[in-house]
Amino acid sequence: MRIIYLEGLTGSRERLICDLLISVDEVIEEFIEALDKSIVITVFVFSMMIIVDWINILTKGKIKNRLLGKGIKQYVISSFLGSTPGCLGAFMSVSMYVHGMISFGALTGCMIATSGDEAFVMIALFPETALLLFLILFLLGIVLGFLTDRVIRFLRIRVCEECRLQEYHEEKLEKVMSGKPVFSPSRLIMLLVFLSLITLNGLGLLGPREMGAERILFISLSTFLAIMSIFSTDHYLEEHITEHILKKHLWKVFLWTLGALVFVSIAITTLDLENVIKSNLNIVLVLSALVGIIPESGPHMVFTVMYHQGLIPFSILLTSSVVQDGHGMLPLFSHTIRDSILIKIINVIVGLAVGFILYFLGL
Question: What backbone torsions phi and psi does residue 163 show, to the nearest 5 degrees?
Fold first, then answer.
């Protein structure tokens, strides 16, 4: 009906209406494509978060004691914790700092190394570059953490010393999987969701269409999550998956990823975003550092997506990653605002310095 109507339109007003309808169609297509990609990324992120959570459960009884000690060891391990995807490593470092187990510089190195939940999305979008980025952040965390302690000591800047803060959700080693399937309304809903994703992918309606590594990975991870929904223990499902991963992380990852993909896709076609950004890269680099100050995962996703789209160079992605720390800093804000602000200032200085060096080197 609409096609017949458009064929009969003449004149400037009619052409304008036709152009608007075409633009609406393009926006809808871009949104559907972004939604499809966001679902795939979210499945990957969900699986990675569960795997990282498993590792945290299996090692937290041992790794914390081994972090004790001064010298280079605390910078290496705190930076390693920061460079692991998600917020668990950052939370652990904050907990150790406020208990006096690591120095201010070691915590600063951790926050330089961490890139929040965006790390999971980076692995999903550009795994090889993501691993290189994590390695660079890890090394920067070690070096800058060591130097930070020396500088604040030289300048006689007072930081938190005798810190006391309650422990964060620390439990004894527990079972993650039960020996038999467990059924409940919430479990059946989760199972239905992941089985639907597998079915839609099989019909070619969702996710990777061509058979290859990406499609196999999507089906495998969806199957893994379907199994988890039935075989995980009640405690793990309720406390770890539902209360922590789903309610605190995953919905934000999905919405911010979808929003960033839609914004970038539509802006490229309607606002000539590519030329605007490439003619003002130095401003975008500074902007990435300023956005990185926000102590929350999500706003930084725009720079991750822009890098994936080829709109910004590696130097801007690195600047954003150095300055931002997801919400790993939030527990520290509740204890000492002064130290939190000082760490953020250091991160901004380091991020801009490293970013502009790489930018002028053409990277």
Answer: -100, 140
CA dihedral 244, 35, 327, 116 (to 10 degrees): 100
Distance CA 88, CA 100 (A): 18
Closest CA to 314 of 62, 109, 162, 135: 135
Cα distances (Å, whole numbers) of residue 344 to 172, 224, 272, 293, 327: 33, 38, 33, 7, 12
Model's pTM, two decimal places? 0.64
5-41 tens-digit pLDDT: 444 445 555 555 554 444 666 667 777 777 887 787 7
Tokens coding 114: 């961490």
HSE at residue 110, side-chain half, CA atoms within 13 A, is: 32
Q: Crossing angle of helices 11-66/88-98, nearest 10°? A: 50
End-to-end CA distance of the chain: 52
- CA dist., res. 59 & res. 77, Å (int): 14
pLDDT, tens digit, 9 for 90 and up, residues 248-276: 767 777 777 777 677 766 666 666 666 66
Extract the runs of DSSP E, i.e. beta strands, from the chain.
none
**SS3 at position 339:** helix
